[in-house]
Design goal:
CATH topology of the largest domain: TIM Barrel
Structural class: mainly alpha
Strand order of the largest sheet: 1-4
Radius of gyration: 19 Å
Helix content: 40-55%
Order of helices and strands: EHHEEHHHEHEHEH
CATH superfamily of the largest domain: Glycoside hydrolase/deacetylase
Number of helices: 8
CATH architecture of the largest domain: Alpha-Beta Barrel
Strand content: 5-15%
Number of domains: 2
CATH class of the largest domain: Alpha Beta
Shape: globular
Length: 217
C-alpha cells in the first residue's frame, strides 16, 4: 500500500524535542503534587486526572508561537519534576531510520523543521521553516520532497500566508487533517485527510475505507 511519512528534520537530528511527548512524559512521571498553571494551583491526583490536565495544557499551548510554547513547556516540566530521564531516542526516527523507510518504498514529505503551528508564526518564520525543512530533507536523504503536511493540520493551524509560502517553497501539494474525503476539486495545497487512530477496530477501518472509495466514485 502506498504511504507517505512526513518528517521533521529537527527531530531527526535531535536538535529539538517533540514537546507533546516530553510534556506527556513529565505529567505521567511527575513527583510534584501540584502545578501552577495560568495563575491557578492545579492538583495532580489520579492517572485519569493527569490525562485531563495534560490534554488541556496541550490545547492551550498550541495557541502559542513556537518560542512561547517551548518556554511554557520548559517551565511546566521543571515544576513537574518528573522521575527518571526521558528516553527521546526510543520514540522517534533518526536519519538512518528515515533513509531505511524511504529505501523500503515509503515516500517522504516535509513537516517543518521544528513542528510549529504555522498560523501562530510570522510570515518570515513560516517561510524559513517551510523552505529549510524541504532543503534539509532533500540534502540528507538525496531525494526530492514534493509534499508537505501542516503541523496539527486543522483549518485554524494554517492560513492564507501559509498556503502562499508552501507554494513559494516549491511543494507540489500539501495535506491537512480536516474536511471531507479528498477529491479532484480540492486545492493542491489543501488536500483533506481523515485521521485513523490505533484504537480503530479493523472492521470499522474497512467500513471507513469503503465509504471513502464510494465517495469518489
Amino acid at each position: 500500500m502506498p504511504a507517505t511519512i512526513y518528517l521533521v528534520p529537527g527531530i531527526l537530528d535531535r536538535s529539538v524535542h517533540a514537546w507533546w511527548e516530553r510534556l506527556g512524559w513529565a505529567v505521567g512521571n511527575a513527583t510534584a503534587r501540584e502545578l501552577e498553571y495560568r495563575g491557578t494551583k492545579v492538583q495532580l491526583k489520579s492517572r485519569e486526572n493527569r490525562v485531563v490536565i495534560q490534554r488541556q495544557i496541550e490545547r492551550d499551548v498550541k495557541q502559542l508561537s513556537h518560542v512561547a510554547r517551548a518556554a511554557c513547556v520548559d517551565d511546566l516540566v521543571d515544576q513537574l519534576a518528573p522521575d527518571g530521564c526521558y528516553e527521546f531516542d526510543r520514540h522517534f526516527l533518526d536519519w538512518d531510520q528515515a533513509k531505511e523507510l524511504h529505501d523500503a518504498g515509503l515516500t517522504v514529505g516535509s513537516h517543518t523543521i521544528e513542528h510549529p503551528i504555522l498560523s501562530r508564526e510570522s510570515a518570515s518564520d513560516q517561510r524559513t521553516t517551510l523552505q529549510t525543512s524541504k532543503r534539509v530533507l532533500e540534502e540528507n536523504l538525496h531525494i526530492e520532497v514534493p509534499t508537505f503536511a501542516y503541523p496539527n493540520g486543522t483549518r485554524s493551524d494554517y492560513d492564507e500566508t501559509t498556503i502562499s509560502e508552501v507554494a513559494r517553497a516549491g511543494y507540489s501539494y500539501a495535506v491537512t487533517t480536516w474536511g471531507p474525503p479528498a477529491s479532484s476539486e480540492d486545492s493542491p495545497f489543501e488536500v483533506h485527510r481523515s485521521l485513523v487512530g490505533a484504537s480503530m477496530h479493523p472492521l470499522r477501518f474497512a467500513a471507513f475505507i469503503a465509504k471513502r472509495l464510494l465517495y469518489n466514485v
